[in-house]
Amino acid sequence: TGAISSLQRQIEIQESELRRIRSEKDLLQRQLREREAQIKAMCDKFCRLTDEQRQEQITVMMEEENLNLQQVVTEQESQLAEQNKLISELQETISQLRAEAVTTRLQLLKHKQAHKEIQSQAEALQHKELQTRVALEHISSKFERFRNKIIQAAFSVEGSRDPVAGLTDDEVLEAMQKIINERTEFRRKLKNKGSK
């Protein structure tokens, strides 16, 4: 946003300079027309004179004035050419600044869009994380209930000792394995005796 504001200020400065130069150009053109009108008026005035000597003096004066005016015209034409060149350069600079401003706006829009996408992805990840936590809590609860059932089954057998608080998973597995082994052995003995 700062870059765009800076470019806009530069464009305003360049356009102001362009208006000033065009104003100077118009002023020079008016002065040129005024000089041409003065020459024409002098020519008309001197044409009405009839005295030869005076006519000669007037002719000399007119030639001098013409030379001066031609010099002024040449200088003003040169200034106008420089002003026109400067105007072209300023217009080119303004076009470049406007193009830069458009590019900067497009980049800003892209950054905003990327930021929105990242924010949307972050929200989706947070939602997924919440779902995963809920699922994990559910699985943990089911596992704890299953573990308690195993403990109850393992220590409810006749002759087994009461479970102590804070049993480890290895101790629970060991108790279950003991029950399985005993039942397997009991089944084998029954089979050997021919009992169904």
Walkthrough of the structure:
With 196 residues, the chain is mainly alpha-helical. It has a domain at 122-194. Helices cover 89% and strands 0% of the residues. The protein contains three helices and no strands. It has helices spanning 2-47, 52-155, 169-193. α1 runs antiparallel to α2 and α2 (52-155) packs across α3. The protein starts with a helix and ends with a helix.
Short description:
The protein contains three helices and no strands.
Annotate the secondary structure layout.
Layout: H1 2-47, H2 52-155, H3 169-193
Helix pairs in contact: 1-2, 2-3
Q: Biggest sheet: strands, sense, closure?
A: none
The tally of beta strands, per DSSP, is: 0
**Mean pLDDT across residues:** 83
Structural category: mainly alpha
Q: Categorize the overall geometry.
A: rod-shaped
* Number of DSSP helical runs: 3
Low-pLDDT parts are none
The sequence of SSEs as H and E is HHH
Tell me the radius of gyration: 52 Å
**Quaternary organisation:** single chain
Strand percentage, roughly?
Answer: under 5%
Distance between the first and last residues' Cα: 89 Å
Specify the helix fraction band: over 70%
Protein name: CCD27 protein
InterPro entries: CC-FHA_domain (IPR052642)
Keywords: Coiled coil
Summarize this structure as a short list of keywords or feature phrases:
rod-shaped; 89% helix; 3 helices; mainly alpha; 196 residues
